[in-house]
Amino acid sequence: MDRPMALGLHASRRNFLVGAGRFAGAAAALRLMPGSALAAETGGAYCPPPSAWSDLAKGVKGGVLRPEDPFFADICRPNNLRYGATLPAGIARCSRPEDVQACIAWVKQQAMPFAVRSGGHNYAGFSTTPGLLIDMTLMAGAEPVKGSDGLVRVLGGTLNSYVYKQMERLGRTITHGRCDSVGAAGFLLGGGIGFNMRKFGMASDLLRATELVKADGSHVNANADSESALYWACRGGAGGNFGINTSFTLETRPAEPVTVFNLVWTGKDLPKILKLLLTELSAAPDEFGSKINVTIPSWQERCANVPLKLSILGQLHKSRVTLKEIFKSTWESIDWSQSTLEENVPYWTGQDFLTETTFPYYYQEKSSYMTAADIGDEAIAAMFDWAARMPATSMPVAFKFFQVGGAINRVGPTETAYVHRGYDWLFSVEANWWRPTDSALLIEQALEWQQRFYDDVNRRTRAQGAFQNFPDPSLADWQRAYYGENLAKLAEVKKAVDPTMLFTFAQAIRPA
Description:
This protein is of the alpha+beta class.
């Protein structure tokens, strides 16, 4: 989730907080099973009687929307349109924890599946449901904690844009992403990447407490002293697994001036340039954060002879090392006609330069973690060979490298649920398309290309794992890829707080 993810980041999207309701009783489940008489009559939709919806509306201060209501389609539309055909039976607009508790009680009573959403940027569509969509966006806000030294409390439905504005007012910052429409909850719960992460750590490393509604309906505060196992799990265990988070208390840092840049290289030497960047930048100081993009043009752009482009976006906090020294042997080959560099600007002015505003489209992303020493010349050559073989769609795609390391790697892999420590780069390759412009056959070919690219490059670089904020519905053994050695403990936490898997979805953690 590079968008990302809320505070989210990603090179074009990100976030979510998700949950899906498990059937509460065998009889109720049977009457709603696919193939049942009621399911046949309703087209597979979930249809509680009008009185049930009225009961829910009485308990939800923010209101309940049904498909016939204005703005229903706008509120339930996900960022990934691949999953846009799944419409909920209703939307509960929660504005307080009591609303969330009312929703939990209601879905149990009605045996209704559900999903929880703030930004709607879940890559795999886990914030969509044919049942009740629990919309958290009315529960928005970010305020300093009175009497604390730099703590800020962010409400569970807050989007990045709100967090950014409040942080700017306070003269503070955190590890945050670039996409202003991502939800803070999904971003934080899955780890949370951004250009500050090498200096401050993952966003989840800055989490000091979180309030959430559990499967039993209780509203608890999880921190290092109370509900400590649940607190540990919420720092990288991903949204939708352990409850519905209604607030997050974050440690913030002073917002100090930064240098921001978008540097571009063109020509025939891009494989050589990429190899130098991946090797030399891994030794950069913690104050440096970057994302490398190799952009593959759309079929329309290819017809216009638009070539591949290598670019790097990022920032540098005040450092003993200059930007030119960090880039070493690649600095002189920068194409300055296409590049931008703004030095020593106010922090949030710099973030305006880096911010990405996205629109809904169709995509799938695959990710893994790499160390610079394992990315050899053969692997780089294979990446560009695969790029040349991309069955072009009507949207450009990219393979990317988000720079990790620094403060991230000074936290042990089991200290929080976020296990991916000890790497230099978070790699991802995307497939993007547009319907109906791109045919079903072309989309199938693009996804096959993506999988083969991913498998080959991972083998050549000995890449490990996958980023849980970039959920991938086609990922084999996602449990180990997302959570590694922390999976067993996460399963124990799940058993303690949600043994019957009320909160479930296709890649939900199962109880031990």
